[in-house]
Amino acid sequence: MNLPIVVLIPLLGAPLAAWVARYGRLNAAWMAGALAALALGLLIPAKLGVFRGETLVQTIPWMPELGLNLAFRLDGLGMLFAILILVIGLLVILYARYYLGEADCTGRFFAYLLLFMGSMLGIVLSENILMLLMFWEMTSLSSFLLISYWQYRSDARNGARMALTVTGLGGLALLGGFLLLGDIAGSYELSAILTQGDLIRAHPLYTPMLVLILLGAFTKSAQFPFHFWLPQAMAAPTPVSAYLHSATMVKAGVFLLARLFPVLSGTHEWAYLVMGAGLATLLIGAYFALFQHDLKGLLAYSTISHLGLITLLFGIGTPLAAVAGVFHIINHATFKASLFMAAGIIDHECGTRDMRRINGLWRFMPYTATLAMVAAAAMAGVPLFNGFLSKEMFFGEAVNFARDSIWVWFFPGVVALAGVLAVAYSLRFGHDVFFNGEPVDLPRTPHEPPRWMQVPVEILVAICLLVGIAPAWTVAPLLQVGVAGMLQETPPYYSLSVWHGFNAAVIMSIVALVGGVLLYLVRRPLLALGDRWHGLLDAPAAYRWLLRQLVALADAVTRRLDIGSQQRLLAVFVITAVAAGAAGIIPPHVPITGPAPMTLPDLVSIAVAITLVLAAFTAALIHQRRLESLIVLGALGLFVSLIFVKFSAPDLALTQLSVEIVTIVLLLLAMNFLPRTTPVETDKAMRLRHFLIALGAGAGSGILAWAVLTRPQASISRFFVEQSVPGGGGTNVVNVILVDFRGFDTLGEITVLALAALGIYALLEDLRLPPPPLDSAGRRWNWDLHPPIMAALVRLLLPLALLVSVFIFLRGHNLPGGGFIAGLVTAVALIVQYLTNGVAWTTARMPRNLHPIIAAGLLIAVGTGVVSMALGYPFLTSAFTHVHWPFADFELASAMAFDLGVYLVVVGATLLILVHMGLMGGASQPADPDPACRAD
Amino acid sequence: MEALLAGIIACLTGCGVYLLLRAQTFPVVLGLTFLSYAVNLFLFATGRLIVGQPAVISDAATGYADPLPQALVLTAIVIAFAMTAFVIMLALKARAELGSDHVDGLAAADDRDHDREVGP
Predict the structure, then answer these.
(1) DSSP alpha helices (H): ranges in A812-894?
(2) In this predicted model, what pLDDT tens digit does every residue of A422-437 receive, in sequence order?
(3) Residue A882 pLDDT > 80, yes or no?
């Protein structure tokens, strides 16, 4: 299982790199380099198989029911990219070690870089497309962190934000596309998807799916009209640009095109969309590259142009065009990474990247200049450099494609024009910077950089040359398996030699070279013209305008809905809910009343129902008088528990009964610190509106309940009833569901309860609200806070109450009862002690700190689950056994332990809430009764 | 019987929503409690109305009520209590920090009348 490990090494290594940087700023670089080398080494054994034509798939099931597996795949295409990512990653790490200044935090930089490397490896090694998407988003996030590495610079922050917005938008579209793709193919695994090209292309949802996936790919690969984020991202440190914006991240988009090429290509939609975007990007990128004055800006637009070239080749869709595209991916990565590094060196040495000021650097750094010019020649497509080979293939494919179409001259002409522009901007990089007069007013005097900073450039330039001169001896095997992986079949024959005889492609190359030189010669008036036109085609400004409009719209909507009034918001919420519900039944597609037979009410039920309805209306009507309405509320709760009794739910009745008591005590306590009455709201119209909303909500829920109740029931509950005794060892099915079948749910619920209690504890910390000195009738409180007879009686009752709760707990598995109810009963019994004997007396006899009880409960509940795991069963599997006692036979289930956990959490949480609330006013009441009162 | 329960749910929801829309915290908490009754009863009702057949396995039983909604509602009752407690605590906190029991924290005119008896 080395593929997941290869991906995990950089991801897990990221915090490690940040950590070692504490002990020396360069440690992070060594750590990052070692981890990248380790990942590369681990990939080697798998590589051998891939070169034999095998596809390695390693799967760890995660949620197979949802089609989610941690599935990794290594075929030629993935391997080609993995090698690019790791090798160029290593070189960039070496380069960055010298590039970063003393003030830059190396730990953060290399941690982000490793995070990005791992995410990128994840993309190219994913077998499952949902996992691929996850890594895709991780590259967006980690590139955001890398671009904004110099956080104090506003251009870095803005560029990072723009990159994240655009690529994040594409990621969302891609998610939609992948879900459609998985739905069409019936699987999210690439192995299954890649064999179903015909089915997918013929599917009616093919076009929307294609558009969504292309949106993802085009935003990532900076294709027109989403190209504008890439030049803005040049605010990143140069190693980041060299890595992300030449070799890896922007290649993720073309990787995706290549990955899904076998299933998506070959249709008119594919051809028009992909070729259209590619051609536009190729031209626009090349055109703007020529007019940049920023060295990195030139490289950024040139990258856009080259990505357009690759996209265009994939759009052509023939196997030979695919070969040219993959070849150009390799070549572009090598020459562009080295050019970025050279630009970084120049920036580093000169203190500026403005080409109007950087001139004649040949005198200062001849060696770096040579390296940079070789790479620039490769970018221009000069023979004997690697860029020439793939460009020539590209020209050839363009001619082949156009031969049978109406574009026979137009298409090759446009392509050749892009070639002319490419030669011109490459010349500008090579000539303008290193010759062309003297430097103008440089902040620093440039000289050659540290030796080791040149080494990565040297290696990349050497690759450019070797591949350019002897392609068959160097890149051929990698290209062959890469293309085979992309096409999922053996690629057609192609020749990698430098000279193919005099053909159309050679003519186009010559035209490009000669035209480019001529264009460069007239650059001065051209650039002046470009400066004047600059700003007319400002894509970032358009983007910002769009964003401002969006924010303004959102603002307007929010301001209309949210005027800072909870009443208003809740009204909108309830109206929406009612309207959504009403939309489902008006006009009625099915009758509201279902076919199930109804039962006739008996007199007692009618009486209870009428009382309950009257009580509810009373409570709502007199809600201004809080104490009275609270008393009515308590009565309501009791009636609700009567309903549970009537309809065969004794457990619910017991729970409701005990919760009702606790709730009323809680609200009474709270009322002590709140005004006694609610002022009458003067706005009659609003009250009428609220009344109508309430009427709508009530009617809606009533109709819904009626519709449910009059329909026959189809439930999964038979399983629980049948399995309760043989599977769970208890006859009380409700309790068995709680502690056994759905034990995981219950664990979640007691966790929520514990969290609520802790949250309340935190809220109450340092909260002091003095209780009012007078009662609601303006009288002083009675000084006799704890009447002795009542206190004595309640103390006597405590053991009895506790006994009852033990009884309820023990019988819970077989008869109504259980941990929840027993816990509530215990809590009520203890709360009564607090109420009658006072907090001081009771806390002196009780554990003061209730947190350990809650913690113990949670630990016991989790512990029962862990024990079953330790024994080799799934989490929370229960076991039970039959026990013979002299007096009785009963089942002893491990779920009882879980129920004990429930019990402890309920007791602890309830007491914590109530006791701390009671303590809020200082003591429960003045500890020392006012002597004046006593005199009364 | 079905109509009775549906009517009860409708009435509890209506009263709950009306209280929820009040401007002071305490009625809002009361409204939430009303709503939790209504919701619990509704969830419970999805198991249909079965009289006299609790879900306790025995040889004498002729049938069983649906235990699943019961189990769901049982925990829902306890969680609703925790939620009520949390909300009322937020109300107290707001009262302590803002000196008002208005839901939007407005310095309400009623504060002057704090603790004053309002006539019947």
Answers:
(1) 819-837, 839-843, 851-870
(2) 999 999 988 888 888 8
(3) no
DSSP A66: G
Rg of chain A over Cα atoms, rounded to whole angstroms, equals 37
Residue A893 backbone dihedrals phi, psi, to 5 degrees: -110, 145
Contacts of A230 (CB under 8 A, 6+ apart): A163, A222, A245, A250, A300, A301, A303, A304
Residue for token pair 């009275």: A628
What is the predicted pLDDT for the residue at A333? 92
User: Do residue A600 and residue B83 have CB atoms under 8 angstroms apart?
Assistant: no
Please give the Cα distance from A27 to A19 (Å, whole number): 9
d(CA A604, CA A385): 96
ipTM of the complex: 0.89
What is each CA distance from A703 to A287, A327, A696, A708, B41, in whole angstroms?
66, 67, 10, 9, 14
Terminal CA-CA length for chain B: 37
- Residue B107 confidence (pLDDT): 63
> For residues A566 and B95, what is the distance between their CA atoms, to the nearest angstrom?
16
Condensed to tens digits (0 to 9), the pLDDT of residues A73-112 reads: 998 899 999 999 999 999 999 999 989 888 888 889 999 9
Which residues of chain B does A621 touch, with a Cβ-Cβ cutoff of 8 Å?
A: none
A684 CB-near residues (< 8 Å, 6+ apart)? none
Question: Of A169, A207, A298, whose CA–CA distance to A245 is shortest?
Answer: A298
Q: Fill in the DSSP letter of residue A104.
A: S
Q: Which CATH architecture has domain B2-50+66-112?
A: Orthogonal Bundle (1.10)
Q: Say if A737 is an interface residue toward chain B (CB within 8 Å).
A: yes
A758 — contact with chain B (CB < 8 Å)? Answer: no
Phi, psi of A714 (to 5 degrees): -120, 110
Residue spans per domain, chain B: 2-50+66-112
Q: Which of B9, B17, B71 sits opposite A694 (nearest CB)?
A: B17
Give how far Cα A913 sits from Cα of A46, A57, A279, A879, Å.
59, 54, 67, 34
CB contact (8 A) between residue A698 and residue B3: no
pTM here is: 0.72
pLDDT at B73: 93
The pLDDT tens digits of the residues spanning A586-604 come to: 777 778 888 888 888 889 8
What residues does A677 pair with on adjacent strands? A625
* Tokens representing residue A249 in the block: 């991240």
Alpha-carbon span A56 to A79, nearest angstrom: 10
Q: In the block, which residue shows the tokens 């050679």? A: A506
* Residue A776 reports pLDDT greater than 70: no
Q: 3-state DSSP call for residue B24?
A: strand
Q: Which two tokens stand for residue A136?
A: 């895709």
